[in-house]
Amino acid sequence: MLQTYLCVMKIFKKDPFGYNIFIKDLLIKILGILSYRRFRGINNLTIKGSEIIKTLPNNNVLFIANHHTYFLDVTAMIHVFNASLNNRRNNLKNIGYLKKLKSNIYFIAEKETMTKGLFTKILAYTGAILISRTWKSKGKSINRPINTNDIDKINKALDSGWLITFPQGTTKNWAPIRKGTAYIIKENKPLIIPITIKGFRNAFDKTGLKIIKRGSEISLTIKDPLQIDYKNESIEQITEKISLAIEQHESFK
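The structure assignment produced for this chain is given below.
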């Protein structure tokens, strides 16, 4: 009787953002199965540094990465994170790792993009922290104040789990690092894990849904934690470190 009660309660359990964890995990598994061959078959994803994932604490971990596609960058990371947690080192062999998922992985996503249609809403349910960009809306440059509710959501995500963010806020190469990420780091003092991805924009279209070139070389590298002096380093210094860590600094051109 107790076991049945616990199973029922698990089905109705929600995360801090109101996502039903059972439904969220089911969607991740379905999307994981649908996307698997993009990384192992159609293209083979080269992974480096995934052993770091198993050493990380359960919360207040911030992943910073460069950005190639709207959806597939995060998808690849969720595959790699869960594979590593299920004892796959630098590989995605045997999709069985999707049976046991880490449910408290979140990713920052632009609200306008993720609420356009049914598919993006489904993707958002897998862990999106929806925020409104302060510098761009509907393809036009704007300048609006930061929404304090967005900050609260980001802080809550770090407090309860792992958070993925793309500090450039765009899929364009060499775009400037937005200072918002540095402010997040200053306020929350998370463990910061840089990730660099390569080859995705050659293999897929901007959304990541359409395959452009089969057999492309795509890679994801997880680096050692970024060292930050939270007390003494300025927003500008942290921003500079971020650009170097994700290899988007002008010195990499």
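Interim note for the steering committee: The mean pLDDT is 90. Residues 182 and 234 are 9 Å apart (CA to CA).
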